[in-house]
Amino acid sequence: MTMNSRPFIKTAKQKNKSKAKLTGMLLTYGVEDLEFISLIAGLIAISKFFYDILVMDFGDFWYLNLVIGVLTLFYSCYRGIYKIHRFNKDISLYYEKERNEAEKENSEITKLPLGYETLYQKVIYTNKTYQEYYVYSNKVNEHLFYEDHLMFKVDPYDYKIPENIRKYVPFALKDRLLKNATLFNGKSWGLASDIYLNSKIVSIKKVKYFDMLATNHLVHKTIKSKSNIDLSFNGKTLFLDEESRLRKLSESSMSDIIGVNTLAVTKDHYLIIGRQGKSSEVSPEDFVPSGSGSLQREDVLKIKSKNFLELIAFGATRELLEECNLPKKSNVKTRVFGYVRLLKRGGKPDFFCVSFIDATKEDIDMHMSRSKEVLQGFQGLPRMIKLQSLTDIDGMIQVISKLEQDSAAYKRIDMDDNNAISKVSLQLHVTKKFLQEYQLNSINPFKELEKQHHYEFKQSI
Question: Distance (Å, rounded) from C-alpha 362 to C-alpha 266?
Answer without folding.
Answer: 10
